[in-house]
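pinging the channel bc i need a second pair of eyes. not urgent but kinda urgent?? the chain im working w is below, pasted from the shared doc
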Amino acid sequence: MAELMFGLGQTKKKKATEDKVRDNKAKQWNYQGRIDQDGTFLERKEKAEQEKAFKEKQRDTKAHLKDVTQGEDGEMAIRKQQHSREKQWKETGRNQIKSNTNFDMARSLFGGGGGAPAAAAQEEEEEYEQEEEVEEEVVEEEVAEEEYSEEEVEE
């Protein structure tokens, strides 16, 4: 009988051991884990820290760039020149429109009393005539020099 009791005790212990093993396997299967030990949590935490550091670096850079003064380099000078040229071109266009409002088409076409355009045309004609006279004088001087040089050669 003692042997029987000994066998029953072992069976009880064996069953208890099997129950513990079964319970441990069930717990492992259902184990959620601590959130600070989870792999995806750790990856997200690391990424968040990297983003935080990047944003902090941006803020610092922005704050330090306020202290930097920028001198005028070649590109800025070119842009400044182009901008002034564009402004001048626009101003010329506006002034042209204003001057065109004073122009009378009927007077210029039908000769109804002269006006600013006719006076300007007369001035241009006078300048043209003066230029022609100067050119004629220059041509006459060149011809005279050639004749003089030919006379020297003949002698």
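so The helical segments are 2-29, 39-65, 74-101, 105-110, 116-154. and Residues 134 and 140 are 10 Å apart (CA to CA). — does that match what u expected or am i reading it wrong
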